[in-house]
Amino acid sequence: MRTLIYKKRRLNFSFMSYRILGVDPGSRLTGWAVLDLPSFGRTFNLISCGLIDAKNKEFPSNLGKIYEELREVMKEYSPGIMSLESVFSGVNPASLIKLSQARGVICLLSSVFNIKLKEYSPRFVKKSIAGYGDANKQQMKEALNIICASKSSNIKAFLNDNMDSNISDALAIAVCCATDMSNFIYS
């Protein structure tokens, strides 16, 4: 069962509005966040966010858990856009393979639900949020606090130092997508 961290009940969706699902993929922990953007340049609202914990599952059951729980999120919130981090190559090739498998499951869901998929490199997300491509997780949380204080009051109240890093990364990816809508409008 996915861990639901926050859920807003009000669903006010109008023409030209966007619902964005940000996903921080991981083979063990996958964070997700749903934002509503009434129109580009307007205040966005956090609708829900949570964590899919598959660390007690072995391969390939962990992928099945990610698929099932994220599918439920997509059914419940009907996002129009999914955004996630692109693959990056770290030191450990085994980790890269596991991350790619989890991303594959998530990308499959965007195809099954016919949702636009937007990928951002971790460096692009960090630069968009913190203004610095090598920002650490604490700097990202602080930058999200500043952005959300000006854009949305309900996100500011929700963010704190105890927020799970996978969820704050998913929120950062969703906010990055919300502030980069020209890619969707003109593509």
UniProtKB/TrEMBL annotation:
Keyword set for this entry? Cytoplasm, DNA damage, DNA recombination, DNA repair, DNA-binding, Endonuclease, Hydrolase, Magnesium, Metal-binding, Nuclease
**UniProt keyword Transmembrane present:** no
Query: Which PANTHER family does the record cross-reference, listed alphabetically?
Result: CROSSOVER JUNCTION ENDODEOXYRIBONUCLEASE RUVC (PTHR30194:SF3)
UniProt signal peptide = none
**Gene that this polypeptide is encoded by:** ruvC
Q: Pfam families, per this entry?
A: RuvC (PF02075)
- Source organism per entry reads Candidatus Acidulodesulfobacterium ferriphilum
Question: Member of which family?
Answer: Belongs to the RuvC family.
E.C. numbers = 3.1.21.10
- Kindly give the InterPro entries that the UniProt entry links to this protein: RNaseH-like_sf (IPR012337), RNaseH_sf (IPR036397), X-over_junc_endoDNase_RuvC (IPR002176)
Name of the protein described by the UniProt record: Crossover junction endodeoxyribonuclease RuvC
